[in-house]
Amino acid sequence: MLSYLITDPNYYIDFKTTLTNAIEKHSPSFICFRDKTSTSNAKLAIDIAKYYNIPILVNQYIDLLNLGFDGIHLTSNQLDLIDNFTQYITFASTHNVEEVLKAKNSDYITFSPIFQSKGRSGVGIEKLNEIANIKKEVFGLGGIVSDDEVKQIKSSQAIGFASIRYFLQ
Questions:
Q1: What is the distance between the alpha carbons of residues 7 and 60, in angstroms, rounded to a whole number?
Q2: What angle do CA 100, 104, 105 make, to 5 degrees?
Q3: CA pair distance 3, 30, nearest whole angstrom
Q4: Domains defined for the chain, CATH in brackets
């Protein structure tokens, strides 16, 4: 099963150490640099990912692609832009069937929230399986904080899972 580590400055006090430890412990398939407050760690994230030979994407900030990112993770509000990035790995955030259909040309999608996360109810594994029948390249996201949730995703039709907090344990 594939795994997708998403960074978040709320959990990355010492960015280099936190990211390096997460990679060494969990060996993610992909990394997403996601920082809505600053781009100061973008180049460091790229360097770390390249050192470990892991594809790295930037979340939503198209103008940062030229720093050396391998791809982009588009928000659900950016789905109309997918076809502009065919030379890059593309992930798209989705939350409903309509968004999944709009993201059909992306390489991968995340679908969320699968489990309860940040006060939002999760849609569950059955819904994730329904989405996997529409777009096979789906990663479950949302509320994945332990091996219990990863095990449930593993038993689904999704090809992988994405998380912020799981990789910090």
A1: 13
A2: 145
A3: 7
A4: 2-168 (3.20.20.70)
Overall size of the chain counted in residues: 169
Distance CA 83, CA 44 (A): 28
Instruction: Say if pTM beats, i.e. exceeds, 0.70.
Output: yes
Continuous H helices in 52-146: 97-102, 125-134
Query: pLDDT at residue 117 above 90?
Result: no
- pLDDT class for 119, splitting at 50, 70, 90? confident
Residue pair 124/142 in contact by the 8 Å Cβ criterion: no
Instruction: Give residue 82's Cα distance to chain centre.
Output: 16
Ramachandran angles phi, psi of 16, nearest 5°: -60, -50
Determine contact, residues 23/48, Cβ cutoff 8 Å: yes
3-state secondary structure of 155: coil
